[in-house]
Design goal:
Blueprint (H helix, E strand, L loop, with lengths): L1 H25 L1 H8 L2 H22 L2 H8 L5 H28 L1 H8 L5 H27 L3 H25 L4 H18 L1 H7 L6 H11 L2 H22 L2 H12 L2 H21 L5 H30 L3 E2 L2 E2 L12 H17 L1 H5 L6 H23 L1 H26 L6 H21 L5 H21 L5 H12 L1
Antiparallel strand pairs: 1-2
Helix pairs in contact: 1-8, 1-14, 2-8, 3-7, 3-12, 3-13, 4-5, 4-7, 4-11, 5-7, 6-7, 7-9, 8-9, 12-18, 12-19, 14-15, 14-16, 15-16, 15-20, 15-21, 16-19, 18-19, 20-21
């Protein structure tokens, strides 16, 4: 429990800043729905989906290799790892970004329908390049457990981006170009922030043997990471040419309303990898990792219930430019619970994946998540023509679920962990039951009465959890101590 408390401490630090930062970023969605045209809003989502894939390619697996080969007690070795990782990413990202900019005129008709397409592609190409300059410095802060500095830096850059978005999009009305310029300037500032760390860590003494070992570790993670990105944003690529611009924008907007679960998974992942790489040699490591999945599931259940039952009221609140979410987009809110469940299984996948990194068996990761990515592509092509963006939502859930299942099957051979299945199933069934009961009973109620009824349903969830003896007295005491600190 002391080690879980350590993980919780780092997660709280990452969490406070990341949740606020993600919330501020999320607040751009209502701004975009009120100040961008539907085609521009759809294009923003599509471009950032492409950028997400480019970021993986630019990383070239060296970010994962950095975590595995970094030695906290050997400064010389750590500096070599930092140098090789940073220089590799810089060269790869610089080369490909220049190529994209040179051929932006040819790429524009393929990637966007907007009239200023060439300029938009040029601006978009700068974003992943500037992102790449911060990958290893941020990894260094995580690995050296400088959680406060990591979180505060990321938070500050988000503040800059959000403020610039307000200036460029709301005040100056630059449209989609304002969105891109805001991110470019924020990323450039981020690169400058890390100049001192980069200067002190790079030694320009290249250890080619170490580079080869890092590449052997990192390159097999690329297909897995690409598959992971396909699970996150691949549906956008398939959906965009198969549905109307309005339907694509509906999906894009309401997918983002599932952000609470996305935030939980992101916050947990920041703290999780350094944690299990620091504790995998402990005698009770597997029991520890199993308990953490149980706690993660409990928190995810609460987030699912709160978001799925109360988002309907949030979108109707007044906001700059109109409602919190433009009423044009409300009809797509039915996909929100599906997205929430999908990202929960993404979190389960991240938990199970620890064993493959611990045993240096990363070559198995592409097989598991790649299966989910292939399923994602195939099922999107099958379902979207029949049920539109609903097909993309259900495919996302199915793909994340299958990826977690396949990875678990492989993990039984690589790094078997006896998870607390009985407790996990109880949480899952109770969550589904409370949600279904609340939504069915409140479907035809006036808005104020339905809100009160759903609050009662949430309270009922906690009452049942406490009366069924889900947590032991020892666990309750430890949980209380975590939040006291």
């Amino acid at each position: 429990m002391s080690r879980i408390k350590s993980l919780a401490s780092d997660t709280m630090i990452y969490g406070v800043f990341t949740i606020v930062a993600r919330f501020l970023t999320f607040m751009l969605t209502p701004l975009y729905t009120n100040y961008l045209s539907v085609p521009e809003f759809a294009e923003v989502g599509y471009l950032f989906a492409v950028i997400a894939v480019i970021n993986i390619i630019y990383g070239f697996g060296m970010d994962s290799a950095f975590f595995r080969f970094y030695e906290k007690d050997d400064e010389e070795q750590s500096n070599r790892v930092f140098t090789l990782s940073y220089i590799s990413i810089l060269c790869i990202s610089g080369f490909f970004s220049v190529v994209v900019i040179i051929f932006s005129g040819s790429l524009a008709p393929v990637m966007t329908d907007l009239p200023n397409g060439s300029r938009i592609i040029t601006l978009a190409a700068l974003i992943p390049f500037l992102d790449s300059l911060m990958v290893i410095p941020f990894a260094f802060l995580r690995m050296t457990r400088q959680a406060k500095k990591f979180a505060l830096t990321r938070f500050s850059l988000v503040i800059v981006a959000v403020v610039l978005n307000v200036i460029f999009v709301v005040v100056l009305r630059w449209g989609i170009e304002g969105v891109l310029w805001a991110q470019i300037i924020a990323n450039a500032i981020g690169g400058l922030v890390f100049v001192q760390i980069i200067y002190t860590k790079i030694n320009f003494k290249f250890d080619f043997k170490l580079l080869w070992e890092m590449l052997k570790f990192g390159i097999p993670t690329i297909p897995a990471m690409l598959s992971g990105i396909i699970l996150q944003v691949g549906d956008r690529w398939i959906l965009k040419p198969m549905v109307s611009t309005m339907e694509f924008a509906l999906y894009q907007c309401n997918y983002k309303l599932g952000i609470p679960m996305i935030m939980l998974v992101s916050v947990f992942e920041y703290a999780w990898k350094p944690f299990y790489l620091s504790h995998y040699k402990d005698a009770d490591a597997k029991k520890l990792f199993a308990r953490i999945l149980t706690y993660f599931t409990m928190i995810a259940a609460v987030i699912f219930l709160v978001t799925s039952m109360f988002m309907d009221y949030l979108v109707r609140m007044p906001f700059v430019g109109g409602k919190f979410i433009n009423p044009e987009y409300w009809s797509g809110m039915g996909i929100i619970p599906i997205v929430l469940f999908a990202y929960y299984f993404n979190g389960v996948y991240n938990n199970i994946a620890c064993g493959f990194h611990i045993e240096k068996k990363t070559k198995y990761l592409p097989l598991a998540i790649g299966f989910g990515a292939i399923l994602n592509i195939v099922m999107n092509f099958i379902l979207i023509p029949f049920i539109g963006y609903w097909g993309a939502a259900w495919t996302t859930l199915g793909s994340y679920f299958i990826s977690a299942v396949v990875l678990y099957i492989y993990s039984r051979k690589i790094y078997p962990i006896e998870y607390e299945w009985f407790r996990l199933i109880k949480i899952f069934l109770l969550t589904c039951g409370i949600y279904a009961l609340a939504m069915v009973l409140t479907a035809d109620m006036p808005i104020i009465y339905s809100f009160i009824a759903r609050v009662f349903g949430l309270v009922l969830f906690f009452v049942i959890i406490s009366t069924m003896g889900f947590f032991t007295q020892a666990e309750l005491r430890k949980i209380k101590s975590i939040f006291k600190h």
